[in-house]
Amino acid sequence: THVYTMYNNQWKKHNKAEKRTYRTRCRSEYNKGSNLCRLCGKTYARPSTLKTHLRTHSGEKPYRCSTCDKAFSQAANLTAHVRTHSGEKPFKCMICHRSFSQSSSVTTHMRTHSGERPYKCALCKKAFADSSTLTKHLRIHSGEKPYQCKLCMLRFSQSGNLNRHMRVHSSL
C-alpha cells in the first residue's frame, strides 16, 4: 500500500519511514481517549505508555538495582542508575568532550556552552539552565525545607546543605 499526503498543493508519495510515522499519527488520533488516565486526565498514544504513567500515581517501582536495592518505575531509569555504580559514561559533549552517564545530562550541560537558560522563576525572573536548579531556587521563595537532620531535627532547603551539616555531628 502507498501512503500519499498533500504537500505544497501536490500529492507526495511517502517512503517507508514516513509511512510508519503517518500511520502512528493516524493511530494516535484514532485512539485518542482510549488510553486515558482516569486519575489525571492525560491521554497516551500507546497502552504501554499509559501503563508506565500509571506508576506515577500508584508508586509502583518494579525495576530494582541489584547493587543497592534502589527501585525505579521505568527500566530506562534503572539502566541510567546502574551507570552510577559502574562509572560508565557513554555520552560525550561534542564541544569540550566531557563524559556523562545520561544523555539528558549532555543536553543540560550544552547550555553551559550556549548560555541558554530556559527555566525562569515566575516570582523574581531569575533563569536557570535546568529544572532541578529552578526547583531548588523556588524553595527560597516558599521557605520549604524538605531535608531534616535525624539527630538534631534542623531542616534544610537542599540535600547538600544537610550533608555538610552532618559533619558537625561526626566531629563531636
From TrEMBL:
PROSITE patterns with a match to the protein in the record: ZINC_FINGER_C2H2_1 (PS00028), ZINC_FINGER_C2H2_2 (PS50157)
Assigned keywords, A-Z: DNA-binding, Metal-binding, Nucleus, Repeat, Transcription, Transcription regulation, Zinc, Zinc-finger
GO cellular component, one term: nucleus
A Gene Ontology molecular function term of the record: zinc ion binding
Broad class of where this protein is predominantly found: nucleus
SUPFAM superfamilies according to UniProt: beta-beta-alpha zinc fingers
Protein origin, superkingdom: Eukaryota
SMART domains in alphabetical order: ZnF_C2H2
C2H2-type domain sequence ranges: 35-62, 63-90, 91-118, 119-146, 147-172
Keyword DNA-binding: yes
Gene3D superfamilies recorded: Classic Zinc Finger
Location in or out of the cell: Nucleus
PANTHER family membership: KRUEPPEL-LIKE TRANSCRIPTION FACTOR, KRUPPEL-LIKE FACTOR 15
Protein name: Glass transcription factor
Organism of provenance: Saccoglossus kowalevskii (Acorn worm)
